[in-house]
Structure formats: C-alpha cells, structure tokens
C-alpha cells in the first residue's frame, strides 16, 4: 500500500531515508520490502526468495505498535544514533536485575535510588522466567538438535514431574488472579498460550493450543471440555463449525461433532444420529442390499468423515480456543494427561517448558543474549543491537517505547518461532469477527451506532485496570488489551518515526 501518496503525510521521504533497510525511494513512492536484504542482516538465508521474484509485503502505519503473540527467536534493532549499551556498569547491571525481579517501573519510581539510564532499562527487558531449567538441555525450542544422546533416569523423571506439577499450579493461579498476564506451555507436540481476562479483546481467561490432532480433540470432548477452532476453514461436507459451537454436521462414528461443541447439544444429537442410521439401514435392506454391503458402505462413509476431520491436523488451522470456566478443566487435563510429558524422543521424561514474564514457583530467571555492532549500508553507518533467545511478546512493545523516547527514527527486523505464529493469527481473526458482528448488529438496528466503540473502549480500560498489578509496564498492558483491526498482527519488520508512528509489515 503506498501510504505516502496521501496528502496528509507530505514528508515521508525523510522517514524512509532514516531507515537502514532500503535505499531512498524515487518520486516519493515506497519501494517493495526486500526479504533477501533483511535475511542477510539476520545472517540467515531466506528460502524461496529470488531477486526477480521478491514478494511485495503490504506496509501499514499506526501510532501504536501492534501486538504480536508469537514467540520471537531473534530481533535486530538499527538506528543512526547510539543505541543503549549492552556492556553494563556494575550499577546498571544491579539496577536492571532489581527492577526486573521486583517488577518496578523505574520511570515512575524516582525515589528508589536505582539507575534509570536507557542501558539499564534495556537490560531489564532482557530477562524472563522458565521452568524447568536443565543447563545441558535446550528446552525451547523443544525439537533442538542439541538434545541428542541425553537420557533421564526414572528417579530424575519423578522429581521433575513433581516440581513441574507444583510450578504449573502456581503459575495458573497467578494467571487467574491477574498477577500474570500470560504464559506459555511448550510441550513436545504442541504449544499452549494462556492469557488472563482482558487481553486480546477477550473478557474471560482463555487459552490457545496449537497444533491439535483428532485424538487430542476427542480426548478433550471425552473430558467434557468445550473448545472452538477459530482458524478452521470450511471443508467439504459441512464439517466446519462456528465459534459459538453450533455444528453443521456430526460424525456417526462416535456421536460427537467434528469440532468444538456444547456437550449437551452433542448428547441430544447422539440419539438423532442413531435414528438416522437405523432408517438408512432399513431403507437399504428394503432395497435388498446385503447386510455385509451395508457395513462396508458405513465403514467407507465413516472413513471419509475421519479423513476430512484430520485434513488440517498439525497445521495452524487446527488451533483450539478454550475460554472461561473451560480453562480450569483444560488446566486439569494438561496436569494429569499422560500425553503432556512425552515418553519417547529427545526430551523423553522432561515436562513441558513453562515461560512467563513474571516470577512463579520454582522458576529460573533466564537472560537473552545481546550483541552490539555497527552496520554500514549504502555508505551510511548504523548502530545495531542483536537480541537472541526466547523473546516473549512483552519485550518488543517495551523496547520500542524505550527507544522512541530518545530516538527520532529506528527500525527492527524479527524472526519468529514457527510453532507460535497461529496465536497472532487467531487473535486477529477473533478481533475481526467481533468487529464484524458489531457492525452487523448496527446495520440491522440491534445496537446504537456508537455503542460498539464505547463498549470496546470500556473493555480496554477495564482490562488494563485489572492487569495493573501483573508486573508489566502500563504501556505493554495497554498494547495487550487493545482491540481493533490493527491491534494484533504478525511482525517481521518495524520502522519508527517520531512524527508518523510505526510502519510495519
């Protein structure tokens, strides 16, 4: 989108020149995003990108930075002026550690005697909490190749399981009490994002799980846990289901709907399915069809429905959303399910990794790796900071706000963990669905034209106030609670200009 064609922004040329990601555009037209150049800056190849076939990525401009709920593995900042130092003095290191552990906002608490320099505040953002922590193992990502040849004995497995049980219980209680805004549970085969009420436009506590399989969904149904699949595409045979749990068709194999469902509706439809099957059998028998042939027809039909239901297993579209009181049942399910702790593979016997921005029982404080350098592009020198590790969603809003206080322009490139991309996709989809529903109500006269905006604003304020003691800065909490079409997105590249705001793609 050529956003600089608008007469409202006559000086975008200066903004583009300040970013180290492309040469100055000609005739005030924004040039396409060059994926290969960013790949070189990140020192990793980008598959499938050629010079002649560079994809054009749509760019947007907003005054605020959209939230990205995927876990980042690498972020690199660029600026023509000096960035916060990564080689810290003793006072800066101590103040950063103290501010992080005590969840202090150093800008508001001037009398605490702590160092409040940009280097200290940047250092404060580079910490997070993790459980379990085994120094000789890489527990995120769980499929790391470094975990080869490692075995855990039965005694160690039991001790790890007991510690993890206590840690998971404590962290979930922090989330319910809104003392923790979000946390991740990373198992070998799936990842779960738990979020407190008020975040992402949801009024209740909720959890995303990705990817899911038919077996996992069936296990949740058997436990009476209701869920929805917001990213599920309409499939053949009407197998898709709305977010409200209203199913379009059911599977005669087990009497359950193929997706999320209200359990009472499933029980009622179970009897209807039996009646339909009996009528079909009677009809086929009246035509003289042999009983064996009838069973073959039924088996083939059931197999077809099963294949359709499993079509998107292990993909982002298989993401599950569990909300409200169902989260307690889902928590108990993860706590007791045997599939949570894998018995085979590289991390056999090691419980899932818990990641949180605030402290929780038995957690270990971890630190991101930072490295400062200088980059010369198109004859211009840029200062750069590269951050590697498990980068949680609250990191980027905080650092961008910090840099925006003292820098006129800067930019950042980001690399994401592929297993967590669905969290941002689902959040964006749900926000769009909510907005579309409100617009539809306005059109048919069910609500007043201004009620939708007022309700959204009230919900954001309510969520922000409820999370005021979650240990994160007010600006980060505001980003988490924001709603609208540009509140959440997947970020690969961010450019900031003090006059115009954030340009992102």
TrEMBL record:
Keyword Nucleus part of the UniProt annotation: yes
GO cellular component labels: nucleus
Main location: nucleus
Localisation: Nucleus
Signal peptide: none
GO biological process: nuclear DNA replication
Spans annotated as Disordered: 228-287
Acidic residues bias (residue ranges): 270-283
Keywords: Developmental protein, Nucleus
TM spans (from-to): none
Compositionally biased intervals (Polar residues): 248-261
Family named by the database record: Belongs to the DONSON family.
Protein name in the entry: Protein downstream neighbor of son homolog
